[in-house]
Amino acid sequence: MEYAEDYEVSPDGYTVPDAPHMEIMFDALEHTAAVEGTESLPRFNNLTQAQHYAVAVLDANGIKYGMRAGNEEGVFSAIGNGFKAVWDYIKKTFTSIWNFFFNRDAAKEGDEAKEAIDEKNEELKKAEAGTQTDEQANAQATKLAGQVDGKEAEALKAAKTPAEKKKAIKDALKKMGSMSGAAKKKLEGTVGAAVKAKKAFLSGSFGSAKGDAKQGAAAAKLADKDHAAAHLLVEMSSEVAKFSMGEANFLKSLEGATSINTPQAAVAFGEAAKKNIDALKALASTFNAKKGKIQSLITATEAKMKKAKDASDKKSLQSEIAAMRTVMVGATQISKLIHANFTRVTAAHKDLVGVFGL
């Protein structure tokens, strides 16, 4: 049965894959490339754990494969349709990161994150300044009365006119920032998650031995070699390093968010968060601009796969797969981190404003 190359990534159902998922698929590719003989990826006999995983992924995506067709060239013929199916899955899934995330979703997610921060900031600013509508003041007074105590709670309950309610709200906001409780506890957890995502950018793990062991080993093979993947890895690492310089400054603000106790400081944090999101969007845009180089690297690697005939060629092919692993898994990590930072920074600001009862 000939492999049917009908797998496509749907833009509607697309999600950023996890880096470990891509790692395991690359393991399956390498294990299959090491197989001698002419069988395609087997379903039951002598499978490695990675190949078992790949079979499940291919089946889950409705990707059909079987015995080699006999008219393909190189490693596709020598190893069979299983190898080609795994490779095509990796290639198309990875290309979709550029088509759907760096090129489309990153900007959209960033804009949505900024809009969410603006909405909460405006609500807090107006409440602190007393410029909210009477209807908003009524709702806020009722909400805050159940969260604050002492004279501030009494003032909220006693207020009758819009002016009285707005003044009581302003006084309540001043107190709530210094109160401990469930809202502060929630903020601590949300900020902790955001800090973790930020530190991932500063860890130096992208394309290095500090990160995943297999990715680091693959990167080491590229060191001091004139390989297109090595040059691309250097470019990508440089962009991440430039972004990380700004991350270090915002990280300090993020870590200090749990100590913020005034509406003004919370609003200022929101503005800093929006600038950070803009920096994330710019990083995604920079990666998107490398789409042509990525495609050239994929095309060149695939051409070598089709020409691989003997043991020497297959050994060389292992190095090519390792090179692609380094670039593809590294870029997958970055896309996942950008996505996580959008959501976690926005959540941190939302829960910070929540400390003030809004």
Question: How would you sum up this structure, described in words?
Answer:
The protein has 358 residues and is mainly alpha-helical. Among the domains are: 195 residues; 45 residues, no CATH class. Helix content is 74%, strand content 0%. It contains 13 helices and no strands. The longest helix has 49 residues. It is elongated and about 85 Å long. About 3% of the residues have low confidence.
What is the alpha-carbon Rg in Å? 26 Å
Detail the poorly predicted runs: 67-72, 207-211
Number of strands: 0
* CA-CA gap between termini: 61 Å
Q: What structural category characterises the helix and strand content? A: mainly alpha
Helix content: over 70%
Task: Name the overall outline.
Answer: elongated
Give the biggest sheet.
none
Content of β-strand:
under 5%
Secondary-structure element pattern, one letter each: HHHHHHHHHHHHH
What's the average pLDDT? 83
- The number of helical elements comes to 13
Task: Offer a quick outline of the entry.
This protein is an all-alpha fold and 358 residues long.
How are the secondary structure elements laid out?
Layout: H1 19-33, H2 49-60, H3 74-79, H4 81-129, H5 134-145, H6 150-158, H7 162-176, H8 182-202, H9 213-222, H10 228-255, H11 263-288, H12 291-307, H13 311-355
Helix pairs in contact: 1-2, 1-4, 1-13, 4-11, 4-13, 5-6, 5-7, 6-7, 8-10, 8-13, 9-13, 10-11, 10-13, 11-13, 12-13
